[in-house]
């Protein structure tokens, strides 16, 4: 009985506030926009009769999804989100790996401090960290001032409100998510493995490539998913740094909802985004599961 | 054996410079006398003064604090239960779905979570507001709490719980007297994490808010969309300082506890 | 002073404290305990001995109540304990990891179980102090578990599990985490405490020396079955099978053909080797394939052929393992068979009589070897 309550309470909470909402999103994505409250049809009202149910289901259709394919704003937004998420994940991996590696190689007494330095931004407001780049990347911002002072450029560059700014923003905000899993994989690595590899005739670089790198793969995979999945649906970064020409699907959804108040289309956008995300999310959870089993 | 080379030193220096320079610039320019954020015009604390006399800002801060405290407390209770179920309850019907529902919100884009929670709660409540934000935040934060707590539970020596039962505890006494005190640090960090997540959240709160419930991130958002403003820099500096002091204090406490424990263990073995 | 030997298992009127009745325990497809029956008597110090995975820990966990038998029943003082949850059993356990609560002091750890059943603070304090005294921990009462040494932690775990004065105390590899020297001292301490408190102890161990030292009876287990249950001396001197003979102590096992002659067997094990003689009370049939187990310390080694001994073999020294107090010689017979012989090193090294490649004679009495079927 006690066990039942223990399981049931969090379970029902998640069913109600996580799973059922998705069902509702799906249902509304099949509805039509209407000038009413709530702003879509059909709706079910008490008493629910068999006739009313039949009528209700007959009124549901895939019109919104057809609409998404006809207006090229949407599929362009999906494609450009995918492109931005993939490229920024790769950049984050390239930037994050050496940092994680350096941390894992650092002396024992240094490591807690380095760890704290990575975690600190993680606890700091996401919004503030994105905002901090607005002052750096703008026309008269610090980056342009610096580049002009060094003489690399003579005219200020347009960086803010371009995709470049979005890449910088994503890499910057998600970097700790990449560093931490790679670091924890590298930190667990037994130092004597490298000594054994060198003892058996590997150069230091070869030992890294044949031993360290493969053994840190799970960390890289986890980190990449942790960057890629939220980046794909990112809203704040493209809105603040990207300007009007950077299309990202999270921003489209947000505007469809808040500016056009078109709940059915916003729901359809969310359903497609969810379908794109399901595969990476399952792969990510599979990877985590394997890690947990290996740890036990 | 660990080897520290110039390569490692360079990558760490550049990496941490990249992480910290934007925030340092933000903090420095909050003390700028000029309204133009990128031109230095002498030291001044006037933006802090303006911030503190901005009633709307203070109201938003108060709302945010209430939401964060309540939602993180709910999230901690539910998340700890969920973690216990995941690690200790063994097999039961629907366990895979349960695990999926715990891990999926960690990576789910905010816009989807926000939209789906809005569509759920709109017909549930006659009016949305603080209560709907609290429910939304508690839901996604409980997943973070449960991940933090379950990682502690996994490394927990199960025989401690068995010993408690063996010595006559009921299962509830066992949890209260043995399990909870031992996982307490993880539960506390879970609470802090939930608190911070709630404090930071813009997107989900925007979807689930109602009249009169404007949170600080929403306030910041509407300000920064108009461009960079020194008042926001001042606010950011205050928030960054709170987090920094908090994180440094927490890590100093853990470090000192660890050092003391090690010293005592060594002394005990020598005796 | 006539002291009766403690042997309740030999007394048909004695009622066992614990009875395993045809107990089987399966985990999925794996059978951990296979149709096992066993009686353990009050005041016994009973050892379950076997390699890891033999089911000994499962036996103990069933007694404590953390596992339930799949089939069969377990009785404590004649009552089936299946419906009693672990927190209601008059059985306490000392865990292999000690499972000391890290957030409580030594004193609070020992008082933990007492507080569950009584509100009488003075009585609890008196009992805790008694336990502290018994385990010589008075000085450490206020310390936390991480502030004391491994040996002290072991004593806290013992005190805590004894505090409630259980009918039965289970000890899961209680000395496994201690180094060898400390382990030996602690073994005697355990026996002492067992005797003082009069509690029935069931100990699980994979260390045969430990089982032999502390136990009144030893059960040798393998693959979920009991192989032999007997006193340490019987287990060592009269092993019931090759498995037991081999598991406990060093032994040479010869395979051959035996023939019954009076109360002994004549044993032929190889062409060109003399027949061996072994007296036994067991009946293994008139003749047939059998085995002879000989403990190395029962084999004498000499340079000249000894007279008047029933078993004499000639061989060559192949290896010498010098162990300080004794040396073990591996002697190879002409047919390639190796027989182990042990000698006490009563003389100094330089005056030792045998060295590698020496031709020597091995001999033993007709009661030294044990005839076994399998």
UniProtKB/TrEMBL annotation, chain A:
It is found in: Cell membrane. Keywords: Cell membrane, Membrane, Transmembrane, Transmembrane helix, Transport. InterPro entries: MetI-like, MetI-like_sf. This is ABC transporter permease subunit. It is a multi-pass membrane protein. The keyword Flavoprotein does not apply. Residues 78-284 form the ABC transmembrane type-1 domain. The chain crosses the membrane at residues 12-37, 77-101, 113-134, 164-186, 207-232, 263-284. It comes from Rhodalgimonas zhirmunskyi. GO terms for cellular component: plasma membrane. GO terms for biological process: transmembrane transport. Belongs to the binding-protein-dependent transport system permease family. CysTW subfamily.
UniProtKB/TrEMBL annotation, chain B:
Gene3D superfamilies: MetI-like. It is a multi-pass membrane protein. One of its GO terms (biological process) is transmembrane transport. It is found in: Cell membrane. Its main location: membrane. SUPFAM superfamilies: MetI-like. Residues 61-253 form the ABC transmembrane type-1 domain. Pfam families: BPD_transp_1. InterPro entries: Bact_Polyamine_Transport (IPR051789), MetI-like (IPR000515), MetI-like_sf (IPR035906). One of its GO terms (cellular component) is plasma membrane. The chain crosses the membrane at residues 12-31, 60-86, 98-121, 133-154, 175-197, 232-253. Keywords: Cell membrane, Membrane, Transmembrane, Transmembrane helix, Transport. Belongs to the binding-protein-dependent transport system permease family. CysTW subfamily. This is ABC transporter permease subunit. It comes from Rhodalgimonas zhirmunskyi.
UniProtKB/TrEMBL annotation, chain C:
It comes from the Bacteria. One of its GO terms (biological process) is putrescine transport. The keyword Transmembrane helix does not apply. SUPFAM superfamilies: MOP-like, P-loop containing nucleoside triphosphate hydrolases. Keywords: ATP-binding, Cell inner membrane, Cell membrane, Membrane, Nucleotide-binding, Translocase, Transport. Its EC number is 7.6.2.11. InterPro entries: AAA+_ATPase, ABC_SmlMolc_Importer, ABC_transporter-like_ATP-bd, ABC_transporter-like_CS, Mo/tungstate-bd_C_term_dom, P-loop_NTPase, PotA-like, Transp-assoc_OB_typ2. One of its GO terms (cellular component) is ATP-binding cassette (ABC) transporter complex. Residues 18-248 form the ABC transporter domain. Coiled coil: none annotated. The complex is composed of two ATP-binding proteins (PotA), two transmembrane proteins (PotB and PotC) and a solute-binding protein (PotD). Part of the ABC transporter complex PotABCD involved in spermidine/putrescine import. Responsible for energy coupling to the transport system. This is Spermidine/putrescine import ATP-binding protein PotA. It comes from Rhodalgimonas zhirmunskyi.
């Amino acid at each position: 009985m006690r066990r039942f309550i223990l399981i049931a309470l969090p379970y029902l909470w998640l069913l109600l506030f996580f799973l059922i909402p998705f069902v509702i999103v799906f249902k509304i994505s099949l509805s039509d926009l209407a000038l009413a409250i709530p702003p879509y049809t059909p709706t079910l009202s008490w008493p629910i009769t068999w006739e009313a149910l039949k009528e209700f289901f007959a009124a549901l259709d895939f019109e919104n999804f057809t609409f998404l394919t006809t207006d090229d704003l949407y599929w362009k937004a999906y494609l450009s989100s995918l492109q931005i998420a993939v490229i920024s994940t790769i950049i984050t991996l390239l930037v994050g790996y050496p940092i994680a590696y350096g941390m894992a190689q650092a002396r024992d007494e240094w490591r807690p401090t380095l760890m704290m330095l990575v975690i600190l931004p993680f606890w700091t407001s996401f919004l503030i960290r994105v905002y901090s780049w607005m002052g750096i990347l703008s026309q008269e911002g610090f980056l342009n001032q610096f580049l002009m002072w060094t003489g690399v450029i003579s005219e200020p560059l347009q960086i803010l409100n371009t995709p470049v700014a979005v890449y910088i923003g994503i890499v910057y905000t998600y970097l700790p998510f990449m560093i931490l899993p790679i670091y924890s994989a590298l930190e667990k690595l037994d130092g004597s493995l490298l000594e054994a590899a060198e003892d058996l005739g590997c150069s230091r670089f070869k030992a890294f490539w044949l031993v360290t790198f493969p053994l840190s793969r799970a960390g890289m995979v986890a980190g990449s998913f942790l960057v890629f999945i939220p980046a794909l649906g990112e809203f704040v970064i493209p809105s603040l740094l990207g300007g009007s020409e950077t299309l990202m699907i999270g921003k489209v959804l947000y505007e469809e909802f808040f500016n056009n108040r078109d709940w059915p289309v916003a729901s359809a956008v969310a359903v497609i985004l969810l379908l794109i995300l399901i595969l990476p999310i399952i792969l990510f959870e599979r990877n985590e599961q394997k890690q947990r089993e290996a740890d036990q | 054996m660990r080897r520290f080379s110039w390569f490692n030193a360079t990558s760490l220096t550049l990496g941490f410079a990249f992480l910290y320079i934007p925030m340092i610039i933000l903090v420095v320019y909050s003390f700028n006398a000029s309204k133009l954020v990128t031109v230095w015009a002498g030291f001044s604390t006037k933006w802090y003064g303006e911030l503190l006399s901005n009633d709307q800002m203070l109201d938003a801060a108060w709302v945010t604090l209430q939401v964060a405290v309540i939602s993180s407390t709910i999230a901690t209770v539910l998340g700890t239960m969920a973690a216990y179920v995941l690690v200790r309850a063994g097999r039961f019907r629907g366990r895979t779905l349960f695990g999926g529902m715990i891990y999926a919100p960690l990576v789910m884009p905010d816009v989807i979570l926000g939209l789906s929670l809005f569509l759920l709660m709109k017909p549930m409540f006659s009016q949305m507001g603080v209560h709907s934000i609290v429910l939304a935040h508690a839901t996604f934060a409980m997943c973070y709490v449960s991940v933090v707590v379950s990682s502690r539970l996994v490394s927990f020596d199960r025989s401690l719980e068995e010993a408690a039962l063996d010595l006559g505890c009921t299962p509830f006494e066992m949890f209260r007297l043995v399990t909870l005190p031992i996982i307490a640090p993880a539960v506390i960090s879970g609470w802090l994490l939930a608190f911070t997540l709630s404090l930071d959240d813009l997107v989900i709160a925007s979807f689930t808010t109602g009249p009169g419930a404007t949170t600080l991130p929403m306030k910041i958002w509407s300000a920064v969309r108009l461009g960079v403003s020194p008042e926001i820099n001042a606010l950011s500096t205050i928030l960054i300082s709170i987090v920094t002091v908090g994180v440094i204090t927490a890590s100093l406490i853990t470090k000192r506890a660890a050092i003391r424990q090690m010293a005592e263990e060594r002394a005990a073995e020598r005796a | 002073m006539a002291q009766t030997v403690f042997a309740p298992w030999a007394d048909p009127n004695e009622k066992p404290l614990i009875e395993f009745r045809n107990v089987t325990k399966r985990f999925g497809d794996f059978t951990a305990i296979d149709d096992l029956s066993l009686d353990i008597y009050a005041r016994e110090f009973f050892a379950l001995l076997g390699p890891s995975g033999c089911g000994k820990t499962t036996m103990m966990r069933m007694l404590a109540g953390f596992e339930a038998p799949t089939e069969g029943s377990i009785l404590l003082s004649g009552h089936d304990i299946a419906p009693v949850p672990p927190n209601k059993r008059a059985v306490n356990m000392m865990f292999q990891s000690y499972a000391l609560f890290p957030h409580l002091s030594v004193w609070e750890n020992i008082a933990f179980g007492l507080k569950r059943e009584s509100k009488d603070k003075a009585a609890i304090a008196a009992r805790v102090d008694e336990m502290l005294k018994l385990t010589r921990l008075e000085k450490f009462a206020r310390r936390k578990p991480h502030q004391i040494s491994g040996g002290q932690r072991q004593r806290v775990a013992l005190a805590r599990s004894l505090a409630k004065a259980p009918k039965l105390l289970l000890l899961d590899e209680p000395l496994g985490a201690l180094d060898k020297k400390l382990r030996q001292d602690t073994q005697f301490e355990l026996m002492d405490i067992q005797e003082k408190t009069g509690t029935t102890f069931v100990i699980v161990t994979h260390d045969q020396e430990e089982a032999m030292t502390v136990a009144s009876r030893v059960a040798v287990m393998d693959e979920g079955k009991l192989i032999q249950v007997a006193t340490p001396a019987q287990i060592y001197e009269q092993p019931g099978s090759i498995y037991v003979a081999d598991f406990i102590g060093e032994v040479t096992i010869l395979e051959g053909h035996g023939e019954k002659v009076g109360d002994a067997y004549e044993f032929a094990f190889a062409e060109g080797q003399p027949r061996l003689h072994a007296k036994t009370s067991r009946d293994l049939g008139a003749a047939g394939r059998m085995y002879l187990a000989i403990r190395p310390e029962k084999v004498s080694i000499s340079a000249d052929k000894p007279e008047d001994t029933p078993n004499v073999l000639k061989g060559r020294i192949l290896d010498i393992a010098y162990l300080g107090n004794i040396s073990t010689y591996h002697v190879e017979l002409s047919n390639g068979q190796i027989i182990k012989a042990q000698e006490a090193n009563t003389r100094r090294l330089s005056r030792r009589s045998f060295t590698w490649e020496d031709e020597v004679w091995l001999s033993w009495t007709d009661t030294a070897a044990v005839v076994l079927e399998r």
